[in-house]
Amino acid sequence: MGSRNPKVDAYIDKAADFAKPILAYVRETVHAACPDVVEEMKWSFPHFTRKGMLCSMAAFKEHAAIGFWKASLVLGDDVKSGDGMGHLGRITKLSDLPAKKDLTAYIKKAVALNEQGIKEARAPRKPAKPVRVPPDVASALKANKKAQVTFDNFSQSHRREYVEWITDAKTDDTRARRLKAAIEQMAEGKSQNWKYEKKPGAGARGWGLGTGRTRK
User: Own/partner pairs for 112-120, CB < 8 Å, 24+ apart?
Assistant: First the structure.
């Protein structure tokens, strides 16, 4: 059995007048196409789920948008991702939506994909560009064998963290201090964010600290 979320009612009530009938129509169409759908608020706008994400809707100042979690499989060539936030283009009135039978078919396709466990293919990640090491950093590494070995064994992301931390310095003095500290830490086998990395046995509370580091 599906469910309706009062927060979705509140979202529609607060939407611009042009958007209210659009959101209400989409909502009813989703429930008609999938009676077991569950409404959730994610990222501050309504989402519809059934064994995973199906679709979402959102209202902005001048247009509404409808998005499908597996858009390329659900919509195929009908995707209009370049026009507005959603996958069906900018919607300013009910007539901008696909015909009801088409919208219903999209929703049912989304449901079927989830029930069959079919996932949308993701584009392969491009390999990261090699980190360019500035001459002063390269020279300091060369002068400290332990630091050089650590740096050479680092992943590209760990190398980039050190290089960016050093090169982001606003003054020569700050850059020199950071470079000295970086070499000392690498000589001890430490990454730039070693204080915030998860230690064996550490709980989730320690895991999230990395985003709050400060740069001296």
Answer: 113/70, 113/73, 113/74, 114/50, 114/51, 114/52, 114/53, 114/54, 115/50, 115/51, 118/70, 118/73, 119/70, 120/69, 120/70, 120/71, 120/72, 120/73
Strands 45-49 and 64-68: unpaired
Residue 145's Cβ-side half-sphere holds a number of Cα atoms within 13 Å equal to 0
Which pLDDT band, with edges at 50, 70 and 90, does 203 fall under?
very low
Q: What residue ranges define each of the domains in the chain, with the CATH number in brackets?
A: 6-115 (3.90.1150.200), 125-194 (no CATH)
Compute, in degrees rounded to 10, the torsion defined by CA atoms 173, 179, 180, 184: 160
Residues contacting 144, CB < 8 A, separation 6+ = 183, 186, 187
- In this predicted model, what pLDDT tens digit does every residue of 45-76 receive, in sequence order? 999 999 999 999 999 999 999 999 998 899 88
CB 141 within 8 A of CB 151: yes
Whole-model pTM: value is: 0.57
**Of the candidate ranges 81-90, 167-176, 198-207, the one whose mean pLDDT is the lowest:** 198-207
Average pLDDT for the chain: 86
